[in-house]
Structures are given as C-alpha cells and as structure tokens.
Amino acid sequence: MDLKLKGKSAIVTGGSRGVGRGICLALAKEGANVVINYNSSNESALKLKNEIESLGGNAVTVKANLGNPEDCKNLIEEAEKTFGNVDILINNAGVWPQNWVQDIPLDEWNKTIDINLTSVFLTSQAFVRKNIDKNRPGKILNITSQAAFNGSTTGHAHYAASKAGVVSLTVSMAREMSKYDINVNAIALGIVETDMTKKALESKEDYYLNRIPIGRVATPKDIGDIALFMVSEPASYITGATIDATGGMLMR
Q: What is the set of active-site residues?
C-alpha cells in the first residue's frame, strides 16, 4: 500500500527517544521529512538525525519547551523554514510521574498537565493556525494512554487525568478542524519498552504482562508503524478516533 507520505513534512514532539524515536524512524523510512523536537539534551536528537540521514532521509532537530506558547509557535515556524510546509503534527511528548493522590505535590500535578495536555493544545493551535492561513490540509495525531479510559492502578492519577484530557481535546479539535481538511486522531498506548517505563518493567514485569492478552510489551517500532498509517492518506476518512494500541490491554 502506498501511504503517500513521501515528501510530506512531520513534526514529532519528544521525538528523540522512546516512542517518539520509533515514530520518527517509521516516517523517515516512508520518505517523509522529519522534525525532531527535544527539550533538554540535543545528543539523542542529533544521533537520531544522523541515523535518519544515513538512511537517505531528511531531518532537523528543534529545541522547544512545549509549556511555552512562543516555543510551540517557533517549532512550527522552524519546520516551515526548513521544509517549506508542515503536513503532519504528532504530539508525543509526555511525562509519567508516580505518586499516590494524597502525596502528589501541586507543582508535579501542574507539570504533568502542562507537558501531557497543555502542550498538545499549544502545538496544535500553532499548527492549525498556520495551515488554515495557508489553506493547507493536515493531520494531527495525539499520543494518549489506556489510562485515559481505565484510570491508574499504580500511582499515576495525574498522568491518567492528563491523558483523558487529550482524548476529549482530540474529539473537539476533530469536529472543529474537519471543515479545514485537517484530521485529528489519537493512539492510546499500553506499556511500551522505553526509558520512561524501564524501572516499572524491571520491578513489575509479570504484573504488566498479565494484563496484555498478546503476551508481550510493545516496542517503539510497533507504535511507529501504527502511527504511520494514522497520518497517511489511506487513513484520511478517520477523524476524532482514538485507536487502541495496547496488545489487548484496552479493549472497547
């Protein structure tokens, strides 16, 4: 199947590691230009950029604090400046702090909401403004979690709340943006092998595996392949949907 992604330009927030990295590589292999967003160290972002270029792809790294509206706007501007157009936005950046409700400090709550939810709004707003102004179609894909539907059982209530907000925001944006030919969807993840989940998997691997009917934890490549289809032309009739990519951990 031709996904018609060659020559398209895609921004992946939090793209230098984990799931974001898997998505960036999947896009590059299909011929898309990739904007790798990062916020702290540029080392992993540059390493990924070099890997993509060694595969014959095009990539650029852009530092942006996604809690800052100006940085979100600049992320879109830098992508436009480099590739001349921005067709796809994948909101992947996120944090997964652990604390029981009675122990969550307000600053930890606020940081979780800012990174996991507010940044999705800010980057999407900057993206749609640019595309509406240019009368250009586009696709937004938001990375959410099965916790948005099931809640948390392991001390991640603030994470679950932020991801539930992403699901609702996805539906609302899809309704508003359809008249501009901008599709907005989401993928709900279960457990994926990343640096963020490494410690939890090491200490509670059986607990997580027992919740996954397929019987294994996802890899970033698994998610990258699913994301690839969701932002492709063959998926253009899908909008406002949250696709479950959990190995059966979430079934609806």
A: 159
